[in-house]
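STRUCTURE REQUEST FORM
Protein name: CPBP family intramembrane metalloprotease
Source organism: Paenibacillus xylanilyticus
Requested output: structure tokens
Priority: standard
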Amino acid sequence: MQIKSLIRPGIKIILIFLIGYTMSHFLREWINAICYAQGVPDEVRIIVSRFSVIAYVLPFLVISPRNVFPSEILRVGNFRASISFPFIWRGKADPLWRFLIIFAVIMALGTFYFIFSYLNDLERNELKLLLYYGLIFSLVNSILEEWVWRGVALHQYVQWSGNVYGLIVTSLLFGMSHYDLGFSVWVCIAFAIGGFFMGGVAIRSKGIVASIVMHVYMNLIFTMTGMIFS
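Status: completed
Returned output:
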């Protein structure tokens, strides 16, 4: 695809993101203000505040309301589909289910030290609460973010600019959206890389269930390293 043909959808995508980013920010601040006023526990506040990500979908209701609930959301997807590492379409090909298992093992090994260091300082009751809130957070956040980013945004951006550019742009914006949550630029870049593979999983499986599973696992890992609630 030529660069000139990407300029118009690129401008449209940036405007949609900026509008969604702004609306999500103020919605999250409003939710946090209510939770603080009501004395809601921080863990519950953090979970509830993730509903602010829905604001990213609102611009799509104006531009293309039919794509807010694309058919991919209703599909389980094909876990036997082939996906290549590291470039989704290029690299070592594996069935999707094997790719997810390898990803899970590598991520667990890579974060083992941080998980052990954080959990080792917790008492038994604290650990139970962490796992309880962590599971709820992981399910809520993963379903919402996958619907928004891989269900709605990726689906729309792929229609405008093709699979490759749509995946790259969605991944970058997904990473950037976390900057408003207080994460550093480097962490946002890491999230963008994760978003690239989750988007690739969604594209190759033709559904978002596999990417939701991947996202839930990642969120549980982040919870156990202390990244979410500490």
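Reviewer notes: Strands lie at 82-86, 91-95. Residues 31 and 48 are 8 Å apart (CA to CA).
Form closed.
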